[in-house]
Structures are given as structure tokens and as C-alpha cells.
Amino acid sequence: MLRMAKNLLIVESPAKAKTIEKILGEDFEVKSCYGHIRDLAKGDMGIDVKNKYKPTYIVPEDKEKVVKELKSLSKKSGEVWLATDEDREGEAISWHLCEVLGLDPKTTKRIVFHEITKPAIQASITHPRTVDMNLVNAQQARRILDRIVGFELSPVLWRKMSMKNNLSAGRVQSVAVRIIAEREREINAFTPVSTFRVEAVFTARDISGKNVTFSAEGKKFSSPEGAEAFLNSCIGAKYTVSDIVVKPAKKTPPAPFTTSTLQQEASRKLGYSVSRTMVLAQKLYESGKITYMRTDSVNLSETAMEEIKKQISAQYGKQYIQVRKFKNKNESAQEAHEAIRPTYMEHSTSEDADSRRLYELIWKRTIACQMADAELEKTTAKIQISTNKEELSASGEVLKFDGFLKAYMEDKDDEDITEEEQQEGMLPPLAVNQVLPFQEMKATERFSRPLPRYTEASLVKKLEELGIGRPSTYAPTISTIQKRGYVEKRDKEGVKREFRILHLKNDQVTKQTELENTGAEKSKLFPTDLGLVVTDFLKLYFDDIMDYNFTARIEEEFDEVAQGKMQWNKMIDDFYTPFKKDVESTIENAERISGERELGFDATTGKKVIVRMGRYGPMVQIGDSSNEEEKPRFAKLKNTQSIETISFEDAMELFRLPRVLGQFEGSDVVINIGRFGPYIAHDKKFYSLAKEFDPYAISLEEATPIIVEKRAAKEERTIKVFEKEKIQLLRGPYGPYIKQGLRNYKLPKEKQENAADLTLEEVKAIIEEVKANPPKRIPKRKKG
DNA sequence: CAGTGAGCGAGCTTCCGCTTGACTT
Known about the structure:
Blueprint: E1 7-11, H1 14-24, E2 28-32, E3 39-40, E4 47-48, E5 54-55, E6 57-58, H2 64-76, E7 80-82, H3 88-101, E8 109-110, H4 118-126, H5 133-160, H6 173-189, E9 194-205, E10 211-221, H7 224-233, E11 239-251, H8 259-270, H9 274-286, H10 302-315, H11 353-368, E12 374-385, E13 391-401, H12 419-422, E14 438-447, H13 456-465, H14 474-483, E15 487-492, E16 495-505, E17 508-518, E18 521-527, H15 529-541, H16 543-546, H17 550-562, H18 568-589, E19 597-601, E20 608-614, E21 617-622, E22 633-636, H19 648-653, E23 659-664, E24 667-674, E25 677-682, E26 685-688, H20 700-717, E27 718-722, E28 727-732, E29 735-740, E30 743-746, H21 749-752, H22 760-772
Parallel strand pairs: 1-2, 1-7, 7-8
Antiparallel strand pairs: 3-6, 4-5, 9-10, 9-14, 11-12, 12-13, 14-16, 15-18, 16-17, 19-20, 20-21, 21-22, 23-24, 24-25, 25-26, 27-28, 28-29, 29-30
Helix pairs in contact: 3-5, 5-17, 5-18, 6-14, 6-15, 8-11, 8-13, 9-11
The structure holds one DNA strand.
């Protein structure tokens, strides 16, 4: 019997292809195209500006293999069905597939589904449509605009920045850096205001009759005098409960995870970086444990909802079920996928500990979103002071029904926590007219705080709120702005600050001063001087692109293109014509940018001291470079210092290097900071200084043991040396290897065990062997 | 591995979004 050729169905993700193939059975072969298969060529931006912005597309080198395979399969197959994601990018991928596979977009069958379930897929097969060219054109406009912005703006930076390696600008990354830069400046400009917060401690009997203490809040005073007068006025007072208000309250569970909320919660609860979360989620997705991890939808499939309900009922009981449909706040959400959830609610994975923790987080969040509200009772008691008109107020919360909190509690960012939420707690039962035994009263000085610096995850949240970037680009964007040196992730040590406490106890008011640590931050994003200077420059000359609403505005235009109300090349022309003028006039007129700031004058020479960006980063300079007789002196800023905030004194400190500490074994021991951080130079050799040593303070006595130890460690690593040929056999973290000059050669497995026995001839043979067959590297993309 | 800092000019870099790999000198 003659068999009909199978139909070919193309999706984007290979993991999806596997699942769908099982569902569709015999008639379909399901393959994936691994995302976009074509992109703009690189020469001339890949855009013919004079010819209505006609794009030139090429198949990138790393996609050639997939394209070749799809081409040959499509020839052999019956019909080709395009089942890429239902969004702008997915539609464009389908069109590119038509172009590359020689299919007619007017007739080729195009289907979509939002969930990978048998009914959804079978239903979509019965309702094929064709490629929506308006949507494709909206994608082309998006792609071309991004290329224009990136490839016109970056070269402006190369020309105008003194530091020009690898600089870049773009619609998304430049605004991301701006967000970080502006927060930093807000923090620098912030002046804390202090208030004195009154807190009184009382005792009362709890339900079991035991005496417990609880506290009540009083008025806030802006001066210590006011607080002191108040405490004095309370000496010998009687405290009576005057009023009790009990209010019910409820908490509702958060929506199921999207990419952005998963990144935020994994950061807060598990401490994962944004990219770590995505790597782990990808693994869970590929092993079939969770649904697709790059999504902005909070939608759940009907079958998933059923399973969640069953699971809640089995695990917690029916009274915990509350069915909810979540809606996306953001209208631009492109709903191509479901929310991130376990594919099956079976609560177990065999993955490693980190993946398991992420899976459990997803599981709990998914379960919780269909669970009942938590019911609370908030009690507020007013307390009268007999000597005084002021009142105190004590509040407490009792959980009446835990609801979804039984499964899951969402964490909050520092900046979103209100004062009320900080002081949760229980109150003992109280009655009106009850007289409360007084323990003590304090007025504590508290300072207002600036908003905290962004974490990777809170930056993602902000970008999503502004509609900038997509689920697939949040993690890469964060790594780009760090790679370019615009932003750094690091910790900041706090500084000690005094605060005052006034204390009323045993009818006496006493004053004391205590120390607190303030301003400490962990794993936060800091702008570098480069990031600040580049942001200022772009804001000055390209304020429209740097506008927080730029993306939102052009998204509206893309939508009009998608609806067929606007021509894509007309839209691009309206953008490009004025933009190109700005680019040209900036190149012509803008001065080179250095972020220069004058600090003062050197006491000994009287010369001017400035800080600015140099070719190799931020630096201090004493004297003018136009002076031919005497060259200026230079010193590099430490990476925690900034052009904007460094003091004259700190800047002058930097000139204390290089320092000669003294002599050891007949040669100078010199301390300096180089390309790779602080180091000791001794006898033409270099030894890195560990973080705990301060290069400005280290002594000869501390430095010499470092030299001796590092020498010994090197000895330890050395297996054998062929002096004449300058070949070394060394032990490294990946096993023994050969070092010749600057190049390293890996030993073949079978030679690793007895590396010490290798002869010169054998070693040379290995080098030749490795040279002839170099280890595979990730191929560098060629220029298009 | 551990320099430098002016300006010129060759030749190079660069964007955002969609997908996974194959890899550690």
C-alpha cells in the first residue's frame, strides 16, 4: 500500500516539537526551527535606506544547519504547517520560513495554540489560517528600528568617548543604564531627615493567663527636645485602654509566574541571579517538568486548573479551593504562552538541589493562585495617658484562616515594604477601660532612607513596567550592560551612624547614643563613571530615545502597522529622517565627553586637580596636559570611587602609589595597582594582593610572606620544567597541562595520570597533536 | 598578565528578539 508522505509541522522550540509529535501521531512529523532563522545582514545596517528601507536578510552561520535540514524535509513532506508562536516575532518567523523554504505565504497553513494540550492542538489543526503580513511588517519595523538605533548610536559613542572599546547604545540597554544612573544620583543627593519615634511597652495577660509584654506607638517628634518634653510629661502617668477597633482584612494570592515575576521571586527567596534562574528553568522545561519559561502571560489552561484543584483538595481540603482567572495588567503582553507552571502537579523532581528549589517555588505559587483568600483580623487599641492629651496606639494581627498562605507567601522588595508591615505582631486580649501596667517608654531617633539601589530582579520589574524588553531579553540585557562596563553588580559596606535614644523607666528620663550601620547593600547594581557619562551624553543629544516612554510610544505605532492602519516603511521614515539629522549634527558639533570635574589645587605645586574619564577609565590628574615642560601626574580611581562623588582628599591619596616598602632578598618590594588590581612587584615578578590587604597600608613585614607563599604555591603546581625549551608541565583546576610561552595545551586523558614521566619528545608530540586538532570553540559569528 | 592618559588612521566594534548548545587555560 502506498503511504502518504507525512505533513511537516514547524514550531520554535525542540522540546515543544517532541510533545506535539506525540499528540499528533502518525500523520505529522514535527520539527523545530530554533527561533529566528534569518536576520538583517550587518554591512550597511542590512537596510537600504534610499530604497524605502528595504531589508537584506541572511541566514546566520549558526542557523545554516537547521535551515538545510528543514529545506530537505519540506521537499519530502506533504504539506508544511507553520506553528510558530502567536506573537509578532512568531509570525515573522513563519514568514521567514516561507521565504527560505519556497512556500507561498498566501496559501501555506499557519496555526497557533496557547497551550500544549491535545484538545488545543487538535482544535487549531482544524482552523488553519495564513501568515498575517501586517503582523510580519510590524515585526520588520521593530527589527529595523532597533538596528537603526543601535548601529547609528554606537558609532557616535566610539567617536565622542575618550574610552572607546566595545561601547554600545540601544533602545533597551541605554534606558536600562539610565534607570540605574538616576537611582544612584537620587541616593547621592539624598539628605536623611531624623524623627524620634515613641514606643511604650506594657504588660497584659494573654489567653492562657500568662503575663506578656506588647508595645504601643506614640507620636513622632522632629526634635529631641520635643521628644524629651513628651517623655517627661509621662512620668507617673496612668495608661488606660480607651477604645478598641477590630477590622477584618484579607489577603489574596498573587498571579502565577511570568518570566519577570519568577526572576523576582527566585532572587528574593532563593538569591538566584536572573540568568541563573533562567538556566535552571530551561533545564526544568527541557525535562518536561514545567511549561515554557519565557512568557508574559498569567493564563492557565483549563486542564491545568482542573489538576490544580484536585491537588489542593487532596493536600489541603476542599475549603481551600477558590478558582481564579488572572488577567494581564500590561496590554502589550503578547499571550503566546501560558503562565509558568508545573506540567503535572506531581510534587517531585529528581533534579539537583537548585533546580528542585526553583521547581518547588513554581509549584507552590501555582497551587496558591487557585486557593482561598487568607482572612485576618486587625485589632487597634487606643491608649490614654492620664497626664497628657496624646494617645498611644497598639495594633496586632490575628490570622483567622490561612487560605493560600498555607502553601505560599510572596516576598516583597525593600522599597515596597511599608512601615506598618514591618511591625506585625500579636496583641493580648484587651478591654476598654483596662489599666495597663507600664514597663518603659523610648523615643528612638530614626532616619529617613533613600530608595535602595536596584537588584537585577528589581530592574527587570522596572523594565517590564515601562514595557521595555521582552521575557527572552531581560537576562541578556542585564549581562550586556555589565559587559559593556556601564553597570557593576557589587556589595557596598555600610557606614556607622550615631542615633539618640531617650528612655523613660522608673520615673526617670535618661539619654544615650548608640551606633547603627547604614547604607549597606548586597549584590546591587551600581553605575560606573562610564555608565554615568554615556547616559548624560545620550540624554543631552538623544533625549527622545532615552525617554522612558519611547518604547511605549513606538509600540503603539507597531500596533497600527499590525492592524494595517499604517505602512511600516512610512513609520520608519518618520522616525529615521529627524533621527539621522540628530546623529549628523551630534557628530559634527558635540564635544568629546570626559565628565571632567575640578576638585581643587595641589598644596605643594599649586596645580589644578581634576577627575575625568581617560582612555583606560576614570582617573585623577594633577596639572594641565597642555603644559609641555611638565607632564601632568595621573592616578586611576578605585572601582568603588566615582568621578561624581570623590573628595579632594581621597583623590590625592591615590598618588601615594607606587610605594617602595623596602628591600627583601636584595631587591625592592613595590606596591602598585595595575590592570588586574593591587600587586606586589619584586625581583621582576608580580604577586597579586588579596582583597583583605590595603595597598596603601600594607607593610614590608606583611608583604614578604605573600611573596614566599605564592612562590611555594607555584612550586606546588609545577610538575616538570624543560628549561631550555621553555616548556612547563603544570597542574591546573582541570588537571595537568602543558604551558609553552603564552599558550596552554591540554593533556590527553590517558597521559594525565603519569604526567611526571613524560619526556620532552612526548610533550612536543602532544603540542603538535593539539595544534593540528585544536579543541572546538564556540564559532564566532561572521560578518554578514 | 601588572602600560597607559595627545592625535592620527587602519580596521574593528554595535542593536533586539527568537531559540539552544558545547565549553571551560
